């Protein structure tokens, strides 16, 4: 793609010579027009922006310096090379003040001018390339921060209100139907997953990471706004920002829902194929049938996860979200019991575990002779779900896991399934009780580790690994111990440290941003403004008793 050049000179023979003598094509440029004065040039620039302007200084109506001043005041992005027959230093000084790239005296030395144009355009292309790279890095930083936040949103760990300081400018998305949710899961009980179950933990972690990368890269190549979050071993959530469905006002709610489902199914098919091709493992997917607002995502995730776990006819892709058929009624009851059972185990509540075990037994008793045919598949899925949750919470040893998998792989009835659930839950609550004191020590170690590494990009996965826990279990324990999520705690500590540095040091805002773990000042400023109610510069000025400007936007703050 060629750059565009505008020639501005009131002497027609000069513009004609410039058109003919300079090797524009070789320089990757094309002339888009010429003007006799500054007024004509501004009109042309407003109609068609140029990358480079070659401009005489002395012209009628509006001279070159006035033209450059107008270009800068109007925010027109282009480089300017001035041409003049005058060797008056005052012209050069004024040109420099307006950011003119170079100043060529007439008669024009065309070889020299060609070299200057080549240098200016090379600098411009390098700057654009660097700007693209900076935007890419900034976007990735924002994406990573969003993924950490969205994990807490999906797990219902964080409070989502418009004035929550952690939203950092995203509060307008809370109530808008903004996301499509897809849950990818390995069928842990299938024959295809037998190799996966036998992999050591280290190999599973590498594979989980690889699947995340495949999903991210595929969505990135499609140009979609997205977040990919690993929820637990062998399960991921993908959030797509596909826009508002009310762009189709003539459709009924049912028609919108159907069209949305078809769009997301096509994307899901592509993602499943990409994982199979690159990670060599077959997954299945559940799609939330509707577009969900941010504050609806936790319930949407639970709906899809429950539907996938309780479905006795597992399809590669299934949609969930509308009223479930009555065949799932018993399953929903068992699911609710299982969720309470898992919660009691994680708390080390042996009494609560006993209550939920008796409720499962009562469901089986009420089913009577139909339990074997109707409840056995559901009980099988609940046993698998229970095992995976115990594994994620580090409440199941490797030996116990392997023993339970052997039982699950063999043929046995409802009573045996219930016995396996009892055994797993009893062992889980006992292990949880034993680990309670140890968990407090782990959280203290995690807090110390976070405080020591605030200066760099620090993820929940890294911190969880440091204290020997899975990400999901670590997140649960951390929220329970400190009353806020990992990302809330990290961000709060960084902001408080930044406030202290702004008050007690003379370091620049960019330096402080790096010291508290933000490689991009713009993103640091955005978070700080949401947290403190002022941008960093105004915050420092207020502490020093200096009157702050009436209003300064992010871009202006970046320039100061």
From TrEMBL:
Record-level GO BP terms: phosphorelay signal transduction system
Residues modified as 4-aspartylphosphate: 56
Occurrences of domain Response regulatory (ranges): 4-121
Domain HTH araC/xylS-type positions: 444-542
SUPFAM superfamilies: CheY-like, Homeodomain-like
A molecular-function term among this protein's GO annotations: DNA-binding transcription factor activity
Positions of transmembrane segments: none
A Pfam family hit: HTH_18
One GO cellular component term: cytoplasm
Keyword Nuclease in annotation: no
CDD domains cross-referenced by the UniProt entry: REC_YesN-like
PROSITE patterns: HTH_ARAC_FAMILY_2 (PS01124), RESPONSE_REGULATORY (PS50110)
Subcellular location: Cytoplasm
InterPro entries per UniProt: CheY-like_superfamily (IPR011006), Homeodomain-like_sf (IPR009057), HptR (IPR051552), HTH_AraC (IPR018060), Sig_transdc_resp-reg_receiver (IPR001789), Tscrpt_reg_AraC-type_HTH (IPR020449)
Keywords: Cytoplasm, DNA-binding, Phosphoprotein, Transcription, Transcription regulation, Two-component regulatory system
Tagged with keyword tRNA-binding: no
Name of the protein this chain belongs to: Response regulator
Species whose genome carries this gene: Paenibacillus sacheonensis
């Amino acid at each position: 793609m060629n750059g565009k050049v505008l020639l501005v000179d009131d002497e027609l023979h000069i513009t004609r010579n410039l058109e003919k003598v300079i090797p524009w094509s070789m320089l990757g440029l094309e002339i888009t027009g010429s003007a006799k004065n500054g007024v004509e040039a501004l009109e042309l620039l407003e109609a068609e922006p140029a990358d480079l302007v070659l401009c005489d200084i002395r012209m009628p109506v509006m001279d070159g310096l006035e033209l450059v001043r107008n270009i800068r005041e109007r925010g027109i992005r282009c480089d300017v090379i001035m041409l003049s027959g005058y060797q008056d230093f005052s012209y050069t000084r004024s040109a420099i003040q307006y950011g003119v790239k170079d100043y060529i005296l007439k008669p024009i030395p065309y070889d020299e001018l060609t070299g200057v144009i080549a240098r200016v355009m090379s600098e411009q292309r390098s700057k654009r390339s660097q700007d693209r790279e900076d935007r890419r890095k900034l976007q990735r930083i924002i994406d990573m921060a969003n993924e950490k936040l969205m994990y807490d949103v999906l797990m219902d760990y964080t409070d989502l209100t418009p004035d929550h300081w952690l939203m950092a400018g995203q509060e307008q998305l809370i109530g808008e139907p903004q996301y499509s949710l897809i849950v990818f899961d390995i069928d842990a009980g299938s024959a295809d997953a037998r190799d996966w179950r036998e992999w050591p933990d280290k190999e599973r972690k590498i594979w989980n990471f690889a699947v995340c990368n495949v999903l991210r890269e595929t969505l990135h190549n499609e140009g979609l706004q997205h977040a990919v979050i690993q929820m637990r071993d062998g399960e991921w959530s993908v959030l797509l920002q596909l826009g508002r469905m009310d762009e189709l006002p003539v459709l009924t709610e049912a028609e919108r829902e159907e069209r949305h489902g078809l769009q997301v199914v096509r994307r899901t098919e592509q993602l499943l194929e990409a994982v199979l091709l690159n990670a060599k493992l077959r997954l299945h997917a559940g799609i939330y049938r509707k577009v969900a607002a941010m504050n609806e995502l936790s319930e949407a995730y639970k709906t899809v996860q429950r539907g996938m776990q309780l479905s006795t006819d597992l399809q590669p892709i299934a949609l969930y979200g509308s009223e479930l058929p009555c065949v799932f009624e018993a399953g929903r009851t068992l699911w609710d019991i299982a969720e309470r059972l898992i919660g009691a185990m994680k708390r080390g509540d042996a009494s609560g575990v006993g209550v939920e075990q008796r409720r499962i037994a009562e469901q089986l008793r009420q089913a009577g002779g139909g339990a074997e045919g109707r409840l056995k598949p559901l009980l099988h899925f609940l046993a698998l779900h229970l095992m995976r949750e115990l594994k994620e919470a580090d409440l199941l040893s490797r030996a116990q896991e392997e023993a339970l998998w052997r039982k699950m792989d063999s043929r046995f009835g409802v009573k045996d399934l219930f016995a396996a659930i009892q055994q797993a839950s009893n062992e889980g609550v006992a292990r949880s009780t034993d680990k309670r004191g140890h968990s407090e020590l782990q959280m203290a170690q995690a807090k110390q580790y976070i405080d020591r590494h605030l200066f760099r990009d620090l993820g929940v996965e890294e911190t969880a690994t440091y204290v020997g826990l899975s990400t999901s279990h670590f997140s649960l324990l951390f929220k329970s111990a400190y009353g806020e999520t990992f990302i809330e705690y990290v961000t709060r500590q960084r902001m408080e440290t930044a406030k202290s540095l702004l008050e007690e040091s003379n370091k620049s805002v960019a330096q402080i941003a790096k010291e508290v773990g933000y490689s991009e000042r713009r993103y640091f400023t955005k978070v700080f403004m949401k947290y403190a109610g002022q941008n960093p510069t105004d915050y420092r000025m207020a502490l020093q008793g200096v009157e702050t400007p009436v209003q300064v936007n992010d871009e202006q703050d970046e320039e100061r």
